Amino acid sequence: MITGKLLENRVVIEDKKSIDKLRNKAYGTLEDNKLYLGLIEALYLIEKEKLELSEGMDILEAARKEREFDIKFLVYKDLRERGLIVKTGFKYGTHFRVYRGSLEEHAEYLVHVMDEKDKFKGYDLIRTARMANTVNKKMILAFVDMENDITYIELKRVKL
């Protein structure tokens, strides 16, 4: 079992063997010989009984401070269980960037999670489709319904 320590909004792993094991599965970000996991990654590993926390506040409480955490976690888990590599999509203005093979290749998808009952504006969709097109990725909207079922829809921008 890998042991980590919860900081404010991420979990740090300091054991070299554990770092190597997680990096081989494309988890976390390496900084100063420490591996930092996002809260979604850490909760996924805790749920899979691969990670335990040595100290820190309640991770679920910390995670739920993040807007729409529960539905983002649901989509993250679904994508990981499909064998995909999931990293944050923050720099692209989306929730996740998703890789099919390895991190050595470029991400194939940008995924934005939406609660099915929420309203969204057309220009938000245009903006995300345009961003994905600009960085040569497929834009996927992940709609989560009240039963926690996920519907994935590819959004394309078409020039006529």
Verbal overview:
The structure is a single chain. With 160 residues, the chain is α+β, with helices and mostly antiparallel strands. The protein has 2 domains: 2-63, tRNA intron endonuclease, N-terminal domain (MutS, DNA mismatch repair protein, domain I), CATH 3.40.1170; 69-155, 3-Layer(aba) Sandwich (Trna Endonuclease, Chain: A, domain 1). It has 5 helices and 10 strands, in the order ββαββαβααβββαββ. 30% of the residues are buried. The strands form 2 sheets. Strands 3-4-2-1-5 form a 5-stranded mixed β-sheet, covered by helices on one side. Strands 6-7-8-9-10 form a 5-stranded mixed β-sheet. The longest helix has 13 residues, at 69-81. Helix 5 (122-134) links the parallel strand 8 (109-115) and strand 9 (138-144). It has helices at 16-24, 39-47, 59-63, 69-81, 122-134, and strands at residues 2-6, 10-13, 29-31, 34-38, 51-55, 85-88, 96-99, 109-115, 138-144, 150-155.
Topology (SSEs and partners):
Blueprint: E1 2-6, E2 10-13, H1 16-24, E3 29-31, E4 34-38, H2 39-47, E5 51-55, H3 59-63, H4 69-81, E6 85-88, E7 96-99, E8 109-115, H5 122-134, E9 138-144, E10 150-155
Parallel strand pairs: 1-5, 8-9
Antiparallel strand pairs: 1-2, 2-4, 3-4, 6-7, 7-8, 9-10
Helix pairs in contact: 2-4
**Based on helices, strands and strand pairing, what is the structural class?**
alpha+beta
Percentage of residues assigned to helices: 25-40%
Q: Termini distance?
A: 55 Å
The biggest sheet amounts to: 5 strands, mixed
**Number of structural domains:** 2
Proportion of residues in β-strands: 25-35%
CATH architectural designation of the largest domain: 3-Layer(aba) Sandwich
The value of Rg in angstroms is 16 Å
Number of H- or I-type helical stretches: 5
CATH class of the largest domain: Alpha Beta
Strand line-up across the major sheet: 3-4-2-1-5
The beta-strand count equals: 10
- Shape descriptor reads globular
CATH fold type of the largest domain: Trna Endonuclease, Chain: A, domain 1
Overall residue-averaged pLDDT value: 87
**Strand and helix order:** EEHEEHEHHEEEHEE
Uncertain stretches: none
